[in-house]
Specification:
With 251 residues, the protein is mainly α. The protein is built from 12 helices and no strands.
């Protein structure tokens, strides 16, 4: 697919805004960029366009803030499961319609957000069994990231339940994203789906995304932990709405 100047300008604006959101929340780049870019391309092209920007913002988010080695040492198993799930999810994306996964993801996130009201739903088992639950969150997040480019909510539920510090949460999630997106890029390359034009176009998009990321980080550094967690819950509600809209739009 060829891109005119108007499409390139739109893509630059979208990646700038998506980078800002990712910087403010520690995640969100693909959840913002993919559906908007898919409006004038298609889902797979949108995912391919955002691979390099995704990897760039994930790497910067992981390394910034100090203590990232401790976060990697503690949560690398979750990232490995994300890697496995991402490979499986990318194969699903190529082979079948991934649209139903959007509705399944939205339903799961709503169940989590309403768990305080639904007293029978207890997510405390994640804290009691962090190893198995982390493996499940990583694998499910990888499959969702590979199919619909939205693996963040599954990881957010897990890490929010662990009640770790915001900086560690951001580093752990971006470690998982980094391995997941790198695996997706290698899978696309192995399948011969990474065209040279998309690669060249993704490089300036990556630079633009990093500019937005830095602005978002500046915002995040000026809020306390409780406010930050409240923002994350609000973001999850917004993502649920967007996932349902996208599901019906793709029918």
């Amino acid at each position: 697919m060829s891109f005119g100047m108007e499409e390139i300008l739109i893509a630059l604006i979208v990646t700038l805004v998506a980078g800002l959101v990712h910087g403010a929340f520690g995640l969100g780049f693909p959840m913002v960029a993919t559906p908007v870019l898919a409006l004038f391309t298609d889902v797979m092209t949108a995912i391919l366009l955002t691979l390099a920007p995704n990897i760039a913002v994930n790497l910067w988010s992981l390394l910034r803030g100090g203590g990232w080695r401790e976060s990697v040492a503690r949560y690398w198993p979750v990232a490995v499961w994300m890697l496995v799930g991402s490979g499986v999810g990318t194969l699903i994306l190529v082979a079948m319609d991934p649209n139903p996964f959007r509705l399944l993801l939205a339903a799961t996130v709503v169940l989590y957000l309403l768990s305080d009201q639904l007293k029978r739903v207890n997510w405390g088992w994640m804290r009691r069994y962090p190893g198995p639950s982390g493996a499940g969150a990583g694998f499910v997040g990888g499959i969702l990231g590979g199919t619909v480019n939205v693996g963040g909510p599954a990881l957010m539920i897990y890490f929010l339940e662990l009640r770790i510090a915001p900086l560690v949460l951001v580093q752990a999630i971006n470690l998982c994203f980094l391995l997941g997106k790198s695996t997706q890029a290698l899978t696309f390359a192995a399948l011969g789906l990474l065209g040279l034009e998309l690669l060249w176009l993704s490089l300036p998009l990556a630079i633009t995304a990093l500019i937005g990321l830095r602005v978002g980080m500046w915002i995040r550094e000026r809020v306390n932990a409780d406010t930050y967690r409240g923002w994350l819950r609000g973001l999850l509600w917004l993502l649920c709405i967007l996932l349902v809209v996208e599901f019906f739009r793709e029918l």
